[in-house]
Structure formats: C-alpha cells, structure tokens
Amino acid sequence: MSTALETRLGYVFRDRTLFDRALTHRSFGADHNERLEFLGDSVLNLSAAALLYHQAARQDEGQLSRLRAALVRAEALAEVAKAIDLGRFLRLGEGELQSGGAKRESILADALEALLGAIYLEAGFDAAQDVMRRLFAPLLEALDADVVRKDAKTQLQEFLQGQRLPLPAYTVLDVRGAAHQQQFRVECAVPALGLKVEGEGDSRRRAEQEAAARMIARMARGGTQPVRGRNKPVFVDARSPSASRESAAQTPPEQTPDPQAAQPAVQEHNPAGAKTRRAPRPPRPT
Fold this sequence. Notes:
Helices cover 51% and strands 12% of the residues. The protein is α+β, with helices and mostly antiparallel strands.
C-alpha cells in the first residue's frame, strides 16, 4: 500500500527502510539521509542535463548550463518539495521540529535529493529520471534561456577569465549557530586585483554567491586600473596601498611629469606601436 507521498512521487518503494532513511534528517537519528542526498544530487544533475539536452535543442552549452543551474538550485528544489508537501513526511529531531525545520528550504531540498538517490538505488536511473521529469515539469515549462540570469559567481568567473586573470578564491571564515541553523561567512578574494570582500548566508553556497555579488559591486564602483610592470599589465586597486606604492615608484614626488617628455619612456615599454591595454569593465551588479 502506497503512502500519500509515494502517490505524489508516482513511485512506490519496495524497500521501506530505504524510503524511511530518505526522509530522515540527521537530527532524528544516526540512520539519516545525507549519503542518499549526496547520491541524489548527481542523479538530479544528470537527469536535468539529459532533459534539457533534448528539450532545449537550440541552446548552446552556456545556455544549457544556466538552465540546469536554475533547475537544480536549492530554491527550485524547495519549491518542488513544497508542491508535494514533503515537509509533512520528514522525520526530524525535536529541536528541528520546534525551529520550523519542516519548512526550511535547505532541509526540503536535501530530502528531495535523498528521495531521488533512493529511487536510483532501488530501481535505477530511468525510474529516478521519470520521477524527476514529473516533479519538475512545471519548472521545465517555465524556463526560458533568454531570461535565466547568470548567478553572481558565474558572472565574476567569466569576467576574470575574459581578462585572463586567475579565478577568485573562496574561503570560509566562520560558521556560527547550531547544526540546523548555521550561518556561514565567506571571503571572496581576487589577488590579481588586490581585492577581498565577504558574504554571509545560511549555506556555504549562498554565502559564496553573496560574496561574489559584493565583489562585482565593488569592481563596478571603479578603482581598478592597469599598471605596467615588466611589460605585463597587472590590474590593481587604485585605492590599495600596493597601487599607491606602484604609482610613487613610477613618478618621483619631486618631479611633475611632462606628457611630451614622458613619451619616449612610454615607447620603450610599448615597442612596435603596441596598443596600451585599457582597464577592463566589470559586469554590472545584479
């Protein structure tokens, strides 16, 4: 006999222990769903990629990647989980129940992935993909590659790659709160520009996105300029101490540079009439 949740999934578990485990949060007991969540995450990503490959035949790789990211983000998973009232069936510890864990997006998203992982283990990929297709059908129909916006991390990465600069580094600085209500503080650093910013969120992913968004906003305010050293452009923050030292080293304080007199020196660093590289224009903050 199937449960109300299995009816909504369109799949009936033969292994009831596996079904219970997929619905068990770590706050409830040792036999929880985190390993199934790990597996289900990959099942979901592959299912989404396969569906989009066939349904969005005219989209290129970049557009397909953005569409998939929109489908598998935590907010989308939580929306699907709420549509089938998944929170009502979760097994949570007393503290998690009292703090509203059954409605928390991260817990709902993790449980949905765990269910897909459990279905994959019991019946294989095709069965898991069928469930995913039914559950995500409304989101798939609403997706439009022209309106799906790149997230902040993607925007920042693509901008730096376009300037042939190293990718940003994300470092977790602090994790506060109980296990069911953690708050992450993450640093985003772009060493080539001499910039560091921080972001916070209730998951590491969200904190990284917040930090990337702040980095984009910081770069959009200006303050970065190309400084030539050994005939190689290096982008630094004009307001950073390193930039001030660079500028002081290039122009002695007791001299006032004459544009015409300085022209030969510029030519020495710019042989064969090579064009001087302009400072890159960062993406607009969203």
